[in-house]
């Protein structure tokens, strides 16, 4: 019953806010969750990731930013902190420069990012977050108010991450258009010419813009997105590796295996074994 309620809530909602200590376990496994950006905000807690060169990690205020369709998941709730999940539809589509900054801090086509914040900065974020949660708890909350408060909250995180709030220019818009087109077409269109034609520039010019703004070519970004989906399917679906290769539109499994190894330095079989061993041994970490 609880699982059905969570699924229904995720399907009809653009935003989902919960205290981590009472977050329903069913949410963590809900397939609808993959469509959400997630902010996991730990307060005076140990981090969820392994920290190099530290035998005993210290408690602190940690913010994890997980993009949609990510590989990584929060495997176990119960920590002190909050979970803020929202769909891309809640972002102001007209503010393309803001949306691109959000995509950057969430590492939209890659792995999760995180930052450790001081108590002072955490307290500042709380001022905006508390207003947003208060509005969210109303049965008939205003989506416009939620959207405005979410933007203020994310702008604070962008400032903490020291990402300059970029000025709006035509190339910024083209990067934004490319990222949206990529999310919709990466399975079927893996040629940069397709995206350049849709945006209205030459392939050479589009690659120049992407290299300048994102430090990668269009083909690299397309391949990154395919690998991201492959990893997500390997970890979180019940499909066999051959089925995943088919879903990702590789004609033959050996080709998919070579492609995966070329981009990750390990075979799909090794990645699957490594990931599942990690899940089994470290139930309260990000994988």
How big a fraction of the residues is strand? Answer: 5-15%
Shape: globular
Helix content: 40-55%
Distance between the termini: 28 Å
List the keywords.
single chain, about 290 residues, alpha+beta, Jelly Rolls, Arc Repressor Mutant, subunit A, 3 domains, 5-stranded antiparallel β-sheet, 12 helices, 5 strands, globular
Give an overview in words.
The protein has 287 residues and is α+β, with helices and mostly antiparallel strands. The protein has three domains: 159 residues, Jelly Rolls, CATH 2.60.120; 46 residues; 60 residues, Orthogonal Bundle (Arc Repressor Mutant, subunit A). 52% of the residues lie in helices and 12% in strands. The chain contains twelve helices and five strands. The longest helix has 19 residues. The protein is globular and about 50 Å long. It starts with a helix and ends in a 6-residue tail after the last helix. About 2% of the residues have low confidence.
Summed up, what is this model?
With 287 residues, this protein is an alpha+beta fold.
């Amino acid at each position: 019953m609880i699982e059905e309620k969570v699924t229904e809530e995720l399907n009809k909602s653009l935003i989902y806010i919960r205290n981590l200590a009472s977050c329903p376990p069913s949410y963590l496994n809900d397939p609808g969750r993959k469509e959400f950006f997630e902010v996991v905000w730990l307060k005076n807690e140990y981090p969820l990731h392994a920290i190099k060169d530290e035998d005993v990690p210290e408690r602190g205020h940690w913010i994890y930013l997980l993009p949609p369709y990510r590989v990584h998941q929060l495997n176990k709730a119960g920590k002190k902190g909050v979970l803020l999940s929202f769909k891309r539809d809640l972002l102001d589509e007209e503010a393309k420069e803001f949306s691109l900054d959000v995509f950057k801090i969430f590492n939209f086509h890659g792995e999760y990012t995180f930052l450790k914040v001081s108590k002072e900065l955490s307290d500042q974020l709380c001022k905006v977050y508390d207003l947003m949660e208060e509005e969210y708890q109303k049965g008939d909350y205003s989506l416009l108010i939620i959207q405005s408060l979410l933007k203020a909250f994310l702008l604070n995180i962008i400032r903490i991450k020291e990402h300059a709030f970029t000025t709006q220019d035509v190339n910024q818009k083209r990067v934004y258009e490319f990222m949206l087109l990529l999310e919709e077409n990466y399975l079927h269109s893996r040629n940069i010419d397709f995206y350049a034609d849709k945006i209205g520039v030459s392939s050479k010019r589009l690659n120049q813009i992407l290299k300048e703004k994102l430090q990668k070519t269009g083909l690299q970004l397309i391949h990154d997105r395919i690998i991201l989906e492959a990893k997500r399917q390997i970890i979180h679906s019940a499909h066999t590796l051959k089925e995943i290769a088919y879903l990702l539109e590789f004609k033959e499994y050996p080709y998919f295996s070579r492609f995966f190894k070329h981009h990750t330095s390990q075979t799909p079989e090794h990645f699957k074994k490594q990931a599942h061993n990690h899940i089994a041994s470290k139930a309260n970490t990000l994988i």
